[in-house]
Structure formats: structure tokens, C-alpha cells
Amino acid sequence: RVAFYLGAKEEKLADDLLITGLMIRTESISLINHTLSPILKPFLGISENASFSVVCGFLCGFPVGAKSCSDLTDKGKISSAEGEYLLSFCNNVSPAFLTGYVAVQSLKQPEMAQICLLFPILAALCCSFLFRRWYLPRNPFAVVGEQADSRQFLPFSEALDKSILSACDSITKIGGYMIVFSVLISFMAKLSFQNFFWKLLLLPGVELTGGIRMLCQLDLTSEQRFLLVMAHCSFGGVCALFQTKCMIRSQNWSFPRYIAEKLKSGDLKCLVAWGGKGCKR
User: How many CB atoms lie within 10 A of CB 11?
Assistant: First the structure.
């Protein structure tokens, strides 16, 4: 079952990595930026070129959002400071995972799919308003990002070659981490620890998919299970942290600060999800 899941997930990640990489290297990224920037630019305080990274982060999930931030920074389309700001709230669990695996398959509550999808997005957007206090005042994102539009895009054939190579390299690293942490959480689950932090926080926090499955097997109320699952989805797990780290290795970004931001995002998402659960009832 683990092998089947990893194969299915890697296939989706490979598609996302290839498509996003190809769009970044061709003029198709400009269409998305020009279409969405009138809304996202004033709302999030970002440059026009950063709109694509916001879309990747909210639609593709870990760690494609992080890679898009790093790739746009490497190509000079956004500044390093803006890339780090985007990373603080744009590297999230994908909508398909939230609605399919979390709401339907794990929680067995299809009626909660909208809340599982909507409120985490709202929590991430709230985090953007919180984190921009540390990034935006010092960095004129709109000016730096828009200057990069003058750079030439690659011909389609060359862009496709580079995108395939980049996607293969990334999926090898991501798949390796998925295998390592899937084995690790299976081993840790066999240990005889029974305390609260081990069963509800530490063990599920190792790898998200296996952790959610374990949480749903515990004797918890539906409200407790829902809030814990939402908190872990926001954090992403230690496996997602390692995957993100390997995607942004070329950047001089503070990884401890990113971890702190994900923990804060987990707190906000848990609160928003609790409010959404109450409204639903």
C-alpha cells in the first residue's frame, strides 16, 4: 500500500514540477502574472512576477510551492527577500490532498471537504498579513520584481529539456525523502511510548500521510481529530521540511525562521478550522 501511494503521489508531483518548470521558462508565465497581478499584487504586497508562485503554492502543494519561489529567485524574476516572503505562506498542502485524502478517506466526513479546503487557505492568507511586517517594509517588491521582465525566455524545446531534467532531479530527492520517512514513522509506531505528546504530536508530525492515518485510528472525538489533523496539515511534517529544504538549497534563506512560520501557521489554521467546524455545526 505504501509503495502504491508513493508511486501515485510521485506521479502527480512529477507532473506539477514539469508543468510549473516549463511555464517559468516560457512566456506562459507572463499570461498568469498579467491576469492575476491586479488582484494579488495589492492584496498580498507582491510584485507582478510573484503571482505565479502564489498559484503554485496554493494549488500544487508541498514542495512545489517552495521550488517555484526558489526558481523565480534564481532566474531574477523576483528578489531574494520576496522569495523568502512568498515561502512563508505559499508552500502548503494541495487542495486535492485536503479534500480527497483528509476529508473523505481519513476523516470519513465528505461534508467537511469545503472546510478542509477553504479555511486553511484563509489561514495562510492571514499569515501573509502577519509575516509581511518583517519583509515588506524593507523591500520594494513591486520595483525589483517588475525589472526582471526584460529577461529573455527560452525557446520551447530548450525549456522543455531543462524542465524535464529539473523535474527528474527534484522528484528523485522528494521520493527519497518520502521513502525514508515512511519507513521511519512505521518503525517509530512500533515503539511502546504511550504519552500524549508522542501519540498526538511527535509521531504524526514525522510524515503527514502516515501521521493523519494514525490520528484517525486513535480514540478521539470528531472535533479533536479534526483540529489535530488540520494543525498537522498546516505544519506539513518533518518530511515536508526536508523536502522544502532541498528545494531551496540554492537560496540564503533562514530555514529556522521558515519552521517558526509553519508552526505559527499551524496555530492559526487550527483556530480558523475550529471556528469553521463550529459554524458548520
Answer: 11
pLDDT tens by residue, 225-280: 888 888 888 888 899 999 999 999 999 999 999 998 888 776 666 665 555 554 45
Identify the CA nearest to 252 among candidates 83, 92, 134, 54.
83
Give residue-wise pLDDT tens across range 152-176. 578 888 989 999 999 999 998 998 9
Residue tagged 503554492 (cell numbers): 57
Name which of 70, 45, 47 is nearest 57 in CA terms. Answer: 70
Q: What is the DSSP string of 13-74?
A: HHHHHHHHHHHHHSTHHHHHHHHHHHHHHHHHT--GGGHHHHHHHHHT-TTHHHHHHHHHHH
CA nearest to 95, candidates 39, 139, 66, 57: 57
Distances (CA, A) of 26 to 80, 154, 211: 21, 6, 38
Write down the pTM of the prediction.
0.85
